[in-house]
Amino acid sequence: MDVKKLPVLPKYPKPSYSFSKLSGLSVIPPAALLDGKQFVVEPVTTRNVTTQIGQTTYLHCIVDKLEDKTVSWIRLRDFHLLTVGLYTYTSDTRFQTIYNEYSTDWTLQIKFPQLSDEGLYECQVSSDPPASHYVYLKVLVPKTKIVGGENFYVSVGSDANITCVITDCPEPPAYVFWYHNGVMINYDVTRGDITVQKAGNDTVISRLKIKNAQPSDSGNYSCSPSNADSASIFVHVLRGEKHAAVQNDAASTSRSTRFVSSANVLTMIQVTIFIAASLCVR
């Protein structure tokens, strides 16, 4: 019976690593640590990869003229050896190396990345001395917000435009569902139009337009993307344009008043402390 042997693990050096998102990776070889003195080593060029939580990502490492050498991927956060060649050396099945012989690309695939996967990864070739390429993985958590606060006022017969902004979203969501009082309205053409568009590298905007708003259109509206938590706003359809405008102004003024009131309270506390301190000095 033939038993397929796993390749012998290469011996990896144990240098010290320090990483800065601005300057990249600095590597301090063990030989550089002499008599407690640390020699300065020029930063190594590092490639940044950004993904979102749950979205399969790929870290690329192109190696030419590999010959009899092996390519390994190491997670530097805990110096965990993930793969050697096409063999996986971790019980976490989300990690796998994919090799493309035409592009000589040894790609580390990470399925369903989590926040704990964020950090620095090393692609190392078992040459003498070892040659390395570094990739910093950034994992984002998409966030959802509806522009305008918690309430929106519109007069009967007018159009209501509600904007939902999804940030920290490198990949557009597979869908964005809109709900009115818990009922999905994406396919209800009588209620209005829904659009989804990319707006920058990590931002997606979805807009809901309610045409000829009627009192029956009042209620809670929720924007629910496939890759993030939902956000809600309460729409009030009022009779008379002036009435709706006054309500919107009142909501805005209320927010400003709360801010000013907080500032006034803080000022009063500071004055009280100052007076008390003056009396103590006397």
UniProtKB/TrEMBL annotation:
GO biological process: synapse organization
Pfam families with a match to the protein in the record: Ig_3, V-set
Leader sequence segment: none
Domain Ig-like, chain residue ranges per copy: 29-127, 142-234
InterPro entries in alphabetical order: Ig-like_dom, Ig-like_dom_sf, Ig-like_fold, Ig_sub, Ig_sub2, Ig_V-set, Zig-8
Domain of life of the native organism: Eukaryota
SUPFAM superfamilies, A to Z: Immunoglobulin
GO CC terms of this entry: neuron projection membrane
Protein name, entry field: Neurotrimin
